[in-house]
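Thread: Modeling a multi-component assembly for a lab meeting

Hi all, long-time lurker, first post. My supervisor asked me to bring a structural picture of a complex we are working on to next week's group meeting, and I have zero experience with this. I have the sequence lines for every component (461 residues in total). Could someone generate the structure of the whole assembly? Inputs are pasted exactly as I received them:
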Amino acid sequence: MAHGLVYRQLLREKQIIFRQKHAILQPFLFFLMFIAFFPLILPFNLQLLHAVCGGVVWMSLTIALFLAAERFYLEDSQCGYLEQWLIYKVPVYSYVLCKWLVHGVVQVVGVLFCMPIIAVMYQLNFLETYSLLASILCGMPALLAMCGLVSAFGPNRSILMLLILFPLIIPILMLGSGAFASSALSAYLALLLALSIGMVFILSIASAAILKISLENT
Amino acid sequence: MKLFYALGNPQTFYKLADQLTQKLGFMALVILLTGWGWGLLFAPPDYQQGDAVRIMYLHVPAAMLSLSIYAFMALAAFVVLVWRIKVAGSLMRASAQVGALLTFIALITGSLWGKPTWGTWWVWDARLTSELILLMIYVGLLALAQQLGNNASADKIIAIICWVGVIDLPIIHFSVKWWNTLHQGSTLTVFAKPKIHSSMLYPLLISLLGLALFCAWLILSLSKYAILQKEYQKDWVAKLCKN
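Re: Modeling a multi-component assembly
Sure thing. I ran the full set together rather than chain by chain. Output:
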């Protein structure tokens, strides 16, 4: 029966996303916009663009993920659905993981669409594009987990929590932007993947605990 | 085991902490004065750095303690999460304050030491960056503690965030081993002979012990005051204040 509930929650997440496409499209467009601004405003210098490309893409990915994550628990907490999950026997981290899984898949599809556009804007060759794409695919679960944890504190506190937890996002960003056009790409990808797996497991349990605490106060 | 649960009682803990802080404060003062006096006045200058090496007697103990206090805070956070003991919550908040102070001291003294020896105030190498991240985590925990208020659910949230940030500890410790850093490698290890000469090693160890006792005194004092603030309505606090 628990398996049925988790499966139905996955389908429900997909339904929520498809009924409110603007909730996903707006952060996605913000991601593209942020990335597009940098070649426009920086002095036109190909080496400069190549140097900043990794950092810029990862920063915009962080902010876009945070903007999308803010709405994770908003409606469910308002209509009481979240409370039902919290008092049911199935552990809450499966609810959290369902949300992250569905949003992760949607983000990956979005990033795949964006890759050719970014490659043209920053004039990247195939190897650089591949390194950027691979680093994003390997490191995005870690970023998603951190943004998911930040959003679990509730809609009012999420920006404060992002500032507080930003020191922990820094290693992901450093590894991710370091992987861009790097000769030791597989090493960076291995570290990013390890961070992703570790953070998804640990932070889903932490998010579940935070959700339960937020409920105790109300 | 019974002692553990007895310590969970705020009144017992206050009495024990009161007795401990009296002894700890005095011992800390004596040992710190010995260590720093020896290090600043009588220890030999370095053959390359000259007298600039004497800042080591503050920088190294502060840095080591910034990590140890985080580990202690993580232990208190674990007690808060598993046993829900409020005294552990006060200890956790107190050690966040002291740990933040020590990390700040370590960063500032390191920067002052780096200018004459490395030629720069700051460099983004692995150890310095991860220690700066540790300071940011400490400050974040303090901001949370202030914003969430002084109740049990706030304690739980701070404990969870403390454990989320504990990953930084092995990163700082092994950063000089895993990366090619400007910061020197470790000279003091548990199993090997120390790489530092004994004329500098002894004042360093005494300073470390003195600073550790000082931090213990500070943490216990801060948690004592926090307990008094939380339990101000109880009879034993009123009796204490009358005396």
